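Before relying on records like the one below, remember that each one covers exactly one chain. Contacts with other chains, cofactors or solvent are not represented anywhere in the record.
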Amino acid sequence: MAVRSAIINVMTRAADKAARRLKRDFGEVENLQVSRKGPADFVSSADLKAEQILRDELGRARPDYAFLMEESGHTAASQPSTDTAQRRWIVDPLDGTTNFLHGLPHFAISIALEERGEIIAGVVYDPIKDEMFWAEKGAGAYLNDRRLRVSGRSNLANAVVGTGSPFKGHGEAPKFLAELNAVIGATAGMRRWGVASLDLAYVAAGRFDAFWERNLSTWDTAAGVALVREAGGYVSQVEGKPFRSDSPSILAANDTLHSSMVSLLRGV
């Protein structure tokens, strides 16, 4: 059985507590679909409640860490310490809000720990499937208690690739469609499931052979990047440049397929 460090235990406990509330709220979405007002306000409320639970749990355990959260942005530590001044939690309390809104059972809680600009731990929890993906720098990546490794496939023709597509008011649809056309013609299949943190977790688990997307935020990718790297994968920007938390795009795969994907997408 995998031995979880104190910091991973803090992260997984917080994710589990927030997930219990999200699952209860998700059970109400079907009823809200038929209401005149619709479920949008309810889902926003569910998102905020989950974020507050995560803030309370993580803040109680590590009051000297700062926060970067999707809904409330950056906040300083409640009890700042010079020893941990460069540590912060990066949190997405509900990745896959549109899925949640429509009653689709595919969404996640994403928590990463950053130290001096480097992600040193990550947790991505899928509460519907009860799959807890977690990783810590130098300790590997795991699904519950099973060690993860990225796919060993070396040929794009055998690869299943995940992506995220632009939607109304976001991203460049023509650019995406050109990239999609290129990848469809070179691979065994495409998947677009709308939850970037889980897409990256699936690369770490070898379920996806590669994943690329543009116009994501730090909280969408931080924990997933830790998972992929600790599972032996490689992460960069789509054009192959080094990936940073504020990078405008992301590409994740094993070493062999990564270079193939870079070449394919550069040619678009």
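The first strand starts at residue 66 and ends at 69.
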